[in-house]
Amino acid sequence: MKRLDWFEILLIVLVMSIGLYAAFADGQNFSWRWFTRDDAYYYFKVAQNISEGHGSTFDGINRTNGYHPLWMAICVPIFALARFDLVLPLRILFLVLSALSVATGILLYRLAGRLFAPVIGAFAALYWVFSQTVLFRVYKQGLETGIAAFLIVLLVYRLSHFETSWRKNPVTRKDLALLGILGALVIFSRLDLVFLVAFTGLWVVFRSSPIRNLMPLDIVSFAFSVLLAFVIKTGIPDYYKLETVAVTTLAVSLLIKIPLAYLFGLYMRERITRLSTLFLTTALFVAASSTILGVVMVLLARRLSFVSFPRITVVYDALATFLLVLLVRLLVDGLKMAGADAEKESPIRYFLRNWRPWLLDGIVYYSVSFVPLLIYMVWSKFAFGTASPVSGQIKSWWGSLSGRVYGGSARTFGEFFGTSYKGDANAWHPVSTQLGFWAENWRGTYMEDVWRFAILLVVFALVFYGLLFINKNKAKTAISRMSIIPPVERGCVPDLLLSHAELFRL
Prior knowledge:
about 500 residues, mainly alpha
């Protein structure tokens, strides 16, 4: 780690001074103005009970694992002090959250500063530590989001260095193991971040292949196309009557489509640079994969006695898959570098030449990242009777109730896919909130707000993609250095990697 510069030192002094002043204010402030979410006190009470030898329990009677392990591990020694003063742990935890905030800000400062300029990095850091939006959503609730945000940014920070180093020096098992350790910490900060760490593994293992660019986007596309097909067929909330069928179809779809996409050459640069070849290959791939998916799901529906398997969803899924596979490759190919090499060998020969290093690298990274999670889940199964946190099961039960006191299942298309700009489903605040505000104030049209919002989303995406072409070289390097599903080509000019990194959104 490099030494702190004057801006970083100033930021630490400023944030921690404010934190010290607030931490030792009137004790009533913590329940009135700060740790106002009841979820936080579930953490605090369980941590207190663990520290006092009562075990992992909230009420002293029933055992619980309804928490994310890393944040609980941080809370336990802090709330051991509750035996002396009930407010003292809250004061100390406030300082811990302040330290996490400024540490995250410093990492953002270094990341954005390396890509653009130190002044832009400084603005990113100042926004993070002083934005009320970040403060309320990440730190004020007293939950695991603070440590999760820090570790996510730290992971991206390390990946940006990895992106430069692997092109100059051979990647060692130690390098992969260190990334795996950081991945394990990210998982334990929030268990649902296991998906992020899994995608990171694809990025690392397939670092010199177009597979790293396309497979993560394909996984998202294939999952989206299946869910979209069921939502179109059933509507919302009727989708939840066939939720098990939809999830099963999604899993089977990934198992079929990913290998077939590779065998059809859709991960080979040579196949996606020619438009006519790309259309024909994609059409053949979709026809083959959809036929196999339909046959397998009909057989499974009989074997597993599904309530119903609407076969029309296979057709909807095929259409969506065709469009998304084309779109992904056109977007990625649009940012390709001049002079990038195209693979001249078949997918089979390419696999036979590379499978061994892929396997060995994957074993190192994923074993270090996922074996601790597996051990935790096995221990949790024996200790609590459930491998996953019971809080998630409770939320699933809440979601099945007709009331909305504790939230509920999605009721609109936007909520279902996380693109709503209102309520709990607003996953992209503050950008989505601003676009939603413009949509609602868009005068002179009889379209519904949701359609105006969708139009603005498309325009925003096109403008962002267009901006990448202002400096294509820098945009490509930025995306790769920030590990954001990059358009990295084989045979790129190494000097480009000495540039900077791109926008990061938590």
